[in-house]
Amino acid sequence: MEKQIFSSFTGKTILVTGGAGAIGSNLIQNLCELDIKKIIILDDLSSGYKWNVPENEKIDFVKGSILNDEKLKCVFKEKPEIVYHLAAHFANQNSVDNPETDLMVNGLGILKVLEYSQMVDVERFVYASSGCGIYGPNSQVPFKEDDVSLNLYTPYQLTKMLGELYTNYFYNLYGLPIVNARFFNSFGPGEVPGKYRNVIPNFFYLAINKKPLPITGTGEETRDFTYVGDIINALMAMVHYEEAVGKAFNVATGREIKIIDLANWINKITQNTAGVIYKERRNWDKKTKLLASIEKSKKILQYSPQMKFLDGLNIVHKWFLENWEQIKVSTDFKK
Fold first, then answer.
1. CB 254 within 8 Å of CB 142
2. Helix (H) / strand (E) containing 182
3. pLDDT in tens, 222-240
4. Is this model's pTM higher than 0.70 or not?
5. Do 278 and 215 form a contact (C-beta atoms < 8 A)?
6. Going by C-beta distance under 8 Å and a sequence separation of 6 or more, which residues neighbour residue 116?
């Protein structure tokens, strides 16, 4: 990453909602290395974990919901110049099972955070959107930022779109300097496996336990898996480049990985001989290919993903082994 980007954070107070999650904790770890004033984390620990957060004197951790006005007043009284809104009700199946909670957290939650951000006149508001949600089954592959869809299949996809509509509204009406970051299949150290979590941590958990890896579909489905370190580089660039304001960016690799190949690689890394099992694809899972165009991110953010996929998988495996006892306690997977 260019050193000039770091200067945009010098002396700043930064609020990270959802900072105890996988992306948030990695972002905070990187921010702690900069010459910043303070990092404020607001997280209710519904899907994040305090043990995942780095220990640093620059960090002020506030346990609470983005729906709680008292907690919001507490964090915004510090007048953060930069807000990273990563808190969310995650993700597709969870939203199908709990649509009202999804709407409250992902809809009303971002509205509240935007309102407080506008009142304290933040310098940059970066929203964690979803490339997996914004684009529909009829969007052309690779997905480009303007080819969004209203033909969506889960409440999570709807509310991630709603979040972008709200950020754009605050930009258009109030001039709030927002940036929408559309993540594609993030992975890396820090994500605890669980019932509603992503495929890579879940595969590692099962493989380490010597169980077969469940594939929903044929295994030929593809995803654009993006290493968390590359995502952090994009998030920091979104604060630095003025041309990014008011725009949406795909944060991806522009590379497809087949799910069957992913499963085979993880089984090989973990020496799991249980293989795979096939299950029926979930009825909301209509996109067999996920692949992003990152040309806009390259041009405006100078974004260039660096992590090789297999190297990233090995880093995740190492993190699992180093944190295995904490992971076993934290996961909601049944033994």
1. yes
2. strand 178-183
3. 999 999 999 999 999 999 9
4. yes
5. yes
6. 72, 73, 76
